[in-house]
Amino acid sequence: MIGDALLALSAMQGLGSPAKQSSYIRVLIRCMSPPSPLRVRHAALRIISDAREELASYTSDSMPQGVDAQLLDQLSCALVTAAHPSYNQTVHDSGPNTYFHNNRDERYVSLVFALTTNEEWCQRLARDGHLKRCISLVDEVCKRESWFLGSYLPVIFGRIDPSGKDLPFSPAQDMWRLLIGNTWNHYSHRVMEHDYINAMPALVAATRLNFPDSGNGVPREWLTDLIEKVHQVLVGLLVKDSNATPVRNGKPDSLADAALSSVQGLYVDLSRIIELMNTL
């Protein structure tokens, strides 16, 4: 019965009318609790993921009536439950409760990606275990070459933990090099899109994570390939910048400026590292 109710709710646009959003969110939280059947938990996750842009816009100063920080805290905890498998399932299970499930995890990761544009959500995501869950997905993404899903992860890391203090990655690791390289390749084809431009500084921050100044421990071939991909993105940003008007919706396009500046800085630093390696 609750599953049928979810199907009816999912036909609504976004999270429904402002007057009913708090009760709607509470229903979804209950649906994502461990006693709920998998079908119900994942249906609730899908509904929340589809409303991710709306949720990402909520701040302590701007929320619908009845929605408050405490309710969003509860939602954050419920999302971890819905996205994380039960440990009584083996990692080899191919069902929807397996450790890695592409459709489930793509919905989850795209939701987290959107929420990380909001600093208040970043704090919740770090506190409630979402960063840990995303870290745990890196190995599976690389094994299965799920690069579209994987392209969200470095940006999530760069937004939630730009200092990298809680991130166990470095360019000395094969899987991290795979993820970073394929993410830049993905971005080189989407450089004109607003969400990707907005994400560039965080991707740069993740790329710089534990990067040795001398390039020591990093394969030269990978660095050469990486700088080519970064250059493709940089060229795309420069073309976009040359064709753009100085303002966007009446305001300076600060997102594009931040993206261009961060990618230019990374390109310069990678060039210096490669030049240094060539002299050794």
In short:
This protein has 280 residues and is an all-alpha fold. It is 65% helix and 1% strand. The longest helix has 26 residues, at 254-279.
Explain the overall architecture:
- By secondary structure, the chain is an all-alpha fold.
- 65% of the residues lie in helices and 1% in strands.
- A two-stranded antiparallel ribbon has the order 1-2.
- Strand 1 (247-248) and strand 2 form a beta hairpin.
- Helix 1 (2-10) packs parallel to helix 3, helix 3 (38-50) packs parallel to helix 6 (102-115) and helix 11 packs parallel to helix 13 (220-243).
- The N and C termini lie far apart (69 Å).
Topology:
Blueprint (H helix, E strand, L loop, with lengths): L1 H9 L10 H11 L6 H13 L1 H5 L12 H15 L18 H14 L3 H9 L2 H15 L2 H4 L2 H8 L13 H15 L5 H14 L12 H24 L3 E2 L2 E2 L1 H26 L1
Antiparallel strand pairs: 1-2
Helix pairs in contact: 1-3, 2-5, 3-6, 8-10, 8-11, 10-12, 11-13, 12-14, 13-14
Tell me the series of helices and strands, N- to C-terminal: HHHHHHHHHHHHHEEH
What value does the average pLDDT take? Answer: 87
Helix content: 55-70%
In the sheet with the most strands, the strands line up as 1-2
**What is the count of DSSP helices, taking H or I runs of 4+ residues?**
14
Characterize the main sheet: 2 strands, antiparallel
CA-atom Rg in angstroms = 20 Å
Low-confidence runs (pLDDT<50, min 5 residues)? 87-93
How far apart the termini lie comes to: 69 Å
Share of β-strand residues: under 5%
Beta-strand segment tally: 2
Given helix and strand content, the structural type is mainly alpha
**What would you call the shape?**
globular
